[in-house]
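Section 5.1 Outputs to date
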Amino acid sequence: MEYRVSPEELIDITMPLSDNTPAWPGDVRFRMDTSVAHGFRLSKLTMSSHCGTHIDPPAHLARYNTFVDDIPLSRLILPAVVTDCRGKPRIEKDIIESLSLDGKALLLKTSSGTSGDNCDPMNYPYLSAEAADLAVSKGIKTVGIDTFSVDPPDSAEVHEILLGASIPILENLLLDDVLPGNYLLICFPLKIIAGDGAPVRAFLQPS
């Protein structure tokens, strides 16, 4: 399948990085320290490899050895389905059953785009293991969500299912203003050698 990228149509679904970027409790928060010397502005960046909008390769689980720099482009630039999961604290397989997912990315929109949707940042919608299993069986290539994680805070079951099937995971996407439907996903992670994760710049183009 051929694609023609139109910059004017691209929708940026990347969370901006700043001192205010939310972080998983206990993880390294983003920080930028800027200095000026000899007329040049230079910044030191401190952050986690899973800061902001980021990608989890299989090697996010210690027993796997497919790292960020090993992810094929076919899992970073591909057709995508954005599905509406708003109002569902747990995304079940009924959301997945009617979708055509073979060779595509599945992006889960959980936020209504209204500030203050959820006062507790760790009480977020997530994907059920049954839904993840079904997505894998339907040929999904990449999975993304607009929350901290595809799993609830006390579990890694969905990570086990997806990463165990070599399906990278995108987390902390910004899908507030994206309508459900079909898109081209364009996702560029930092090329970190042996990286267990990396921030990404991600875009959608309506198809």
